[in-house]
Specification:
Structural class: mainly beta
Pfam families: Phytase-like
Shape: globular
Strand content: 35-45%
Domain Phytase-like: 65-294
Oligomer: single chain
Largest sheet: 5 strands, antiparallel
Keywords: Signal
Signal peptide: 1-18
Organism: Perkinsus olseni
Distance between the termini: 60 Å
Helix content: under 10%
Order of helices and strands: HEEEEEEEEEEEEEEEEEEEEHEE
Length: 312
């Protein structure tokens, strides 16, 4: 093959910048609870409505780059989702509504590599440098993989900032890794949240370890409670405020979301081999968070929803 022919083949086979790699999926819709049409959960904070649960699987069974979704953010207009995987990739999913029942389908998935601060692609695969666990954005997500993104990693505990979303050719490593020295190797930062700016002041980056550290508190007490270390990081001043988060019954924090007004919800998950998975959604007010950050206090969030596979 001539050099010019080889170049042409390379150009045809290499995705152009900004396109990502298209993945084709099988998808199934699942109920909130098996055998039940119930789709709401009522609490003192209001009513949560189950919109939809989708099971997604790559059509290609061998060498799939899709799977292990660790954290998801949703476009403000509902047009798409952006996820990170524990294999070290961004996964940009477009949503389309069904004209029959008004529910959503994933119409397209594009996978983008992550780049380290030196501009190298973070190796793809489970574990190692690419074990991405948490995803958050500065402001609102508008879709298309854009925005200033923050990703946390386990193993080599760190947080990288991607200034141009999935198109970022270099990331910036935030000066926070020293904080996580006592986080277990496989129990680092899964729950992170970039607070939205208020009155022109940049929001803090909230980070919570999935499992308790050896130095912050006993792992459990007689009631099965655990205390998890958390931090609020100011990117401008690099000041850090310490706080703690309480949980129990083997539920560990895996994601956070901010509501209008500054209150937040925390997603907890539980896995016991003999019982399967469990999920909790907890609520923390802005006042409670501010107080905990001011004095290094412990948050005891209000549980507003709990679902377990053993319950159907």
């Amino acid at each position: 093959m001539s050099p010019s022919s080889a170049l042409l083949v390379a150009l045809l086979c290499t995705p152009a910048a900004g396109q990502g790699t298209v993945v084709h999926l099988n998808q199934w819709r699942l109920p909130l609870r098996n055998g039940s049409r119930e789709d709401t959960i009522t609490s003192s904070k209001g009513t949560l409505k189950h919109m939809q649960t989708l099971r997604l699987q790559d059509v290609a069974t061998n060498g799939s780059r899709f799977g292990g979704l660790s954290s998801i953010i949703v476009a403000a207009n509902g047009s798409g989702l952006l996820a990170v995987s524990d294999r070290g990739a961004f996964e940009d999913m477009s949503l389309g509504s069904s004209t029959v029942d008004g529910e959503y389908n994933v119409t397209e998935v594009r996978i983008y590599p992550m780049h380290d601060p030196q501009g190298n692609i973070i190796p793809f695969g489970t574990g190692g440098q690419g074990d991405a666990e948490g995803l958050t954005i500065n402001g609102y997500y508008e879709g298309g993989g854009g925005g200033e993104l923050y990703v946390s990693y386990e193993g080599d505990h760190r947080v990288l900032k991607f200034p141009n979303g999935v198109e970022s050719r270099r990331s910036t490593r935030l000066n926070v890794s020293y904080l996580f020295a006592h986080c277990p190797s496989n129990g680092g930062l899964e729950a992170i949240l970039k607070q939205r700016p208020t009155a022109g002041v940049d929001g803090l980056l909230l980070m919570v370890c999935e499992e308790p550290s050896n130095s912050s508190a006993p792992a459990t007490d007689p009631q099965g409670r655990i205390v998890l270390p958390g931090w609020a990081y100011n990117e401008t001043s690099e000041d850090v405020k310490r706080f703690y988060l309480e949980s129990d019954d083997l539920f560990h924090p895996t994601d956070m979301a901010e509501l209008n007004g500054g209150d937040m919800m925390i997603l907890f998950r539980r896995f016991v081999p003999t019982e399967g998975n469990g999920m909790r959604i907890a609520y923390v007010t802005k006042g409670e968070l501010d107080q905990a950050m001011a004095v290094g206090g412990t948050l005891n969030p209000q549980i507003i929803a709990e679902v377990r596979t053993r319950d159907g």
